[in-house]
């Protein structure tokens, strides 16, 4: 555990300590914080009960982990610091989890801050004498969704970074992978109405229970995240990395 | 600790390449005594870096075995990495971190207690003349300063053995001299075994108690630099002057104590069969019309030994 904390110490310093790092990450960090003010201000009370927070809970960890993981894994090799790290007494697992923990904590942590800030914004901007809170399904769903997304993107980012020669290449490949599910969803939105009559779609939508849907999505995501993360862990081996 | 810091037995490592397998290290056997500076010499691509990676357990050998500080490189690699320090092909310095944070990180990695860590960082950075600039990001430093910092990092946890892969490669003359001086001073003061790869022969000559020469992964020679020089040829006489005519050289070569004599650009190199007085040879040259300005006694340099061995191979 101490070794993981040591790697986390170094990763954290590398991300935030120095001028160049701050300039690089401030816009990435500021965007979600701005979203936490502007969007809930516009949506009003519906913000706490509708879908936008779920989208934010998926998007924020995706962006933040997607930026930090390639820098942490492919960057260590690109900057020629990985071999020295591998020649130290640190275990493969300590290096792996230390790096992942900082990225996931950043992605998940910023999401939680954004959810909290947006709740405060809604309550201040649209105060009607009653405290607005997220319904339990939305609250727990967002917590789980953002964590699972952070872990999933971390796993994907590591797998991509291990094969990429540079941070830029890793980041580009990862972003390309993010676009695939979006295209598939758009394709589905286009194809399904053609395949099914509109009343059937309406009945299908009405029959879906929000909680059940959330649980199904989370279960699928958990399975996917666990598989990809396990694969990334298995691939992160000294002998393989030294050969790279 | 065992008497040998490193013991290598028929170590072989193959790599797969598009053109077929490449043998980087070929049945290498070597014994490095503890407490010395050992130079591992060879041209680029000779297998020096691969050998270091094998010794650190970063690569698995194709066959053969090696023990470092008594630990097997395949089954006890973690123990090896715990008790050794390394400065590899690249300095491995985190450029966005300050010099102090670079050492702080590795001090934590080696689990040095806080006060020990701080004292040791101060001691090493002061010794290397970097203490005043410890808060600067290492990325702003010159290559020589980074290499010094990497050397400090390798010695931070007082390892019994330090593996250095071309520590002065790519440095300008002044920086290389500084790193070499730091290395010699620290090796003596800390009493560590140093395994140093280099293709800089004068560096090996100045620093190393023993050297091994490899070529295409195979061991070509091993021993004290003086032993290798003696193996390569007898004593030498160098004459600086003018008028090294063919007549003078023919007379010189006819002498029984002379093995060979070659003149180039006002410089005459005479290889002798054994140590002998120079006076008769100088008289002979003067009689033959040579204007002698300077005479020096000498032995073959390690560089000449190296080149001879490479040609023989």
Description:
The complex is a heterodimer of chains A (244) and B (313). With 244 residues, chain A is an all-alpha fold. Chain A has one domain (2-180, 222-243). Chain A contains 10 helices and no strands. The two termini of chain A are 27 Å apart. Chain B is α/β, with parallel strands linked by helices. Chain B has 2 domains: 4-223, Rossmann fold (3-Layer(aba) Sandwich), CATH 3.40.50; 233-312, Alpha-Beta Plaits. Chain B has 11 helices and 14 strands. Chain B has helices at 48-55, 77-83, 99-109, 114-127, 143-155, 173-190, 201-207, 225-232, 246-253, 279-287, 302-312, and strands spanning 4-17, 20-33, 37-41, 63-68, 71-72, 84-87, 161-165, 193-198, 210-215, 218-223, 236-242, 258-264, 267-272, 291-298. In chain B, the strands form 3 sheets. Chain B has a 6-stranded mixed β-sheet, sandwiched between helices. A 4-stranded antiparallel β-sheet of chain B has the order 2-1-4-5. Chain B has a 4-stranded antiparallel β-sheet with strand order 12-13-11-14, with helices on one face. In chain B, α5 packs parallel to α6 (173-190) and α8 packs across α11 (302-312). The longest helix of chain B has 18 residues, at 173-190. The mean pLDDT of chain B is 86. Chain A binds chain B through residues 2-3, 6, 9-10, 13-14, 17-18, 20-21, 79-81, 83-91, 238-239, 242-243, and chain B through 53, 56-60, 78, 81-82, 86-97, 101, 105-106, 108-111, 137, 150, 153.
Provide a brief overview of the structure:
The complex is a heterodimer of chains A (244) and B (313). Chain A has 244 residues and is an all-alpha fold.
Strand and helix map with partners:
The complex is a heterodimer of chains A (244) and B (313).
Chain A: H1 2-16, H2 19-43, H3 52-78, H4 82-86, H5 92-125, H6 136-163, H7 167-195, H8 198-207, H9 210-235, H10 238-243
Helix pairs in contact in A: 1-5, 2-5, 3-5, 3-6, 3-7, 5-6, 6-7, 6-9
Chain B: E1 4-17, E2 20-33, E3 37-41, H1 48-55, E4 63-68, E5 71-72, H2 77-83, E6 84-87, H3 99-109, H4 114-127, H5 143-155, E7 161-165, H6 173-190, E8 193-198, H7 201-207, E9 210-215, E10 218-223, H8 225-232, E11 236-242, H9 246-253, E12 258-264, E13 267-272, H10 279-287, E14 291-298, H11 302-312
Parallel strand pairs in B: 3-8, 3-9, 6-7, 7-8
Antiparallel strand pairs in B: 1-2, 1-4, 4-5, 9-10, 11-13, 11-14, 12-13
Helix pairs in contact in B: 3-4, 5-6, 8-11, 9-10
């Amino acid at each position: 555990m101490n070794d993981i904390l040591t790697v986390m110490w170094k990763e954290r310093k590398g991300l935030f300590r120095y001028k160049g790092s701050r300039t690089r990450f401030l816009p990435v960090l500021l965007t979600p914080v701005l979203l936490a003010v502007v969007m809930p201000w516009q949506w009003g009370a519906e913000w706490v009960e509708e879908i936008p927070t779920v989208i934010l809970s998926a998007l924020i960890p995706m962006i933040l982990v997607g930026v930090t993981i390639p820098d942490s894994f492919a960057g260590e090799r690109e900057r020629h610091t990985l071999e020295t790290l591998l020649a130290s007494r640190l275990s493969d697992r300590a290096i792996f989890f230390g790096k992942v923990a900082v990225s996931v904590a950043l992605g998940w942590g910023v999401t939680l801050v954004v959810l909290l800030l947006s709740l405060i914004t809604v309550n201040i901007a649209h105060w009607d004498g009653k405290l607005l809170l997220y319904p339990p399904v939305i609250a727990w769903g967002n917590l789980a969704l953002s964590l699972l997304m952070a872990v999933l993107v971390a796993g994907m980012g590591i797998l991509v970074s291990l094969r990429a020669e540079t941070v830029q290449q890793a980041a580009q490949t990862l972003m390309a992978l993010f676009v695939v599910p979006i295209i598939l969803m758009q394709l589905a939105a286009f194809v399904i109405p053609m395949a099914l009559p509109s009343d059937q779609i309406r009945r299908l939508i009405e029959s879906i229970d929000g909680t059940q849907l959330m649980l199904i999505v989370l279960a699928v995501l958990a399975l996917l995240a666990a598989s990809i993360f396990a694969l990334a862990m298995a691939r992160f081996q000294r002998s393989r990395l030294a050969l790279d | 600790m065992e008497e040998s810091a490193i013991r290598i037995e028929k170590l072989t490592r193959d790599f797969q390449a598009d053109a077929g397998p490449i043998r980087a290290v070929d049945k290498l056997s070597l014994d490095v005594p503890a407490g010395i500076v050992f130079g591992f010499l060879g041209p680029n691509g000779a297998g020096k870096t691969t050998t270091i990676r094998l010794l650190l357990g970063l690569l698995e050998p194709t066959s053969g075995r090696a023990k470092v500080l008594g630990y097997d490189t395949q089954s006890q690699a973690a123990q090896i990495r715990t008790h050794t320090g390394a400065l590899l092909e690249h300095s491995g310095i985190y450029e966005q971190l300050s010099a102090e944070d670079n050492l702080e990180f590795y001090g934590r990695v080696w689990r040095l207690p806080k006060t020990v860590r701080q004292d040791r960082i101060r001691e090493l950075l002061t010794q290397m003349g970097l203490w005043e600039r410890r808060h600067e990001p290492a990325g702003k430093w010159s290559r020589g300063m980074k290499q010094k910092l990497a050397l400090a990092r390798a010695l931070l946890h007082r390892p019994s053995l330090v593996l250095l892969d071309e520590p002065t490669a790519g440095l300008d003359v002044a920086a290389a001299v500084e790193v070499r001086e730091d290395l010699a001073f620290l090796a003596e003061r800390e009493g560590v075994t140093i395994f140093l790869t280099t293709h800089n022969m004068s560096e090996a000559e100045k620093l190393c108690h023993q050297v091994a020469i490899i070529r295409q992964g195979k061991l070509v020679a091993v021993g004290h630099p003086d032993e290798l020089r003696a193996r390569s040829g007898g004593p030498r006489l160098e004459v600086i002057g003018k008028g090294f005519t063919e007549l003078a050289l023919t007379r010189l070569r006819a002498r029984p104590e002379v093995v060979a004599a070659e003149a180039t650009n006002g410089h005459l190199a005479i290889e002798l069969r054994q140590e002998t007085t120079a006076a008769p040879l100088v008289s002979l040259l003067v009689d033959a019309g040579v204007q002698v300005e300077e005479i020096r006694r000498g032995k073959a340099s390690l560089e000449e030994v190296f080149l001879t061995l490479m040609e023989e191979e």
